Amino acid sequence: MLELSDGARLTAAIVLLTVVGIESGGFFLLKVSTGRVPATDFQKSFFRAGHAHAGVLVTLGLLCVVLAEATVLTGFWHWLAATGVLVAAVLLPGGFFFGAMGRDRTRPNGFRVLFPVGAVFLAAGVVTLAVGLFLS
Questions:
Q1: Model pTM above 0.70
Q2: What letter would DSSP give residue 110?
Q3: Collapsing DSSP states into helix, strand and coil, what is residue 103?
Q4: How far, in Å, CA of 126 to CA of 71, rounded?
Q5: CA 53, CA 111: separation in Å to the nearest integer?
Q6: Which domain holds residue 116?
């Protein structure tokens, strides 16, 4: 049986509950694609990208939580390995969804700053986890 720390188990449980939010994003996309919610082509593409990134990164993030338990990492480095991808799973989709908000928008707004910040968390999380796995 896989042994998870209390923190890892709680994090995984919370992240699993976020799937309901991702599911509601899918319902929103259905409304956009059927014309019940007006959106520009730019907004449609950003909404699709945000939804896809959320699903993929949450799945990868759950795997990282579990794999981080198999490392010798401690403190900040363990936190980064376990949750860096999950932070990116909030920031990157947020950049897509919030970046496309606004009536008749055809270009991203100021929320596009979430992309590089999310990318840094994604890269830092997976690299830290890989190093931790190599060291263990």
A1: yes
A2: G
A3: coil
A4: 13
A5: 16
A6: 6-135
Q: Where are the beta strands (DSSP E) in 18-65?
A: none
The DSSP 8-state label assigned to residue 48 in this structure reads H
How sure is the predictor about 101, in pLDDT bands with cuts at 50, 70 and 90?
very high
Say if residues 106 and 40 touch (Cβ distance below 8 Å).
yes
Query: What's the domain count of the chain?
Result: 1
Contact call for residues 11 and 83 (beta carbons, < 8 A)? yes
Q: Which two tokens stand for residue 34?
A: 């059927």
pLDDT at 2: 77
Cα angle 40-51-99, degrees, rounded to a multiple of 5: 50
Q: Tokens for 59, please give them.
A: 């799945």
Residue 1 lies in a domain: no
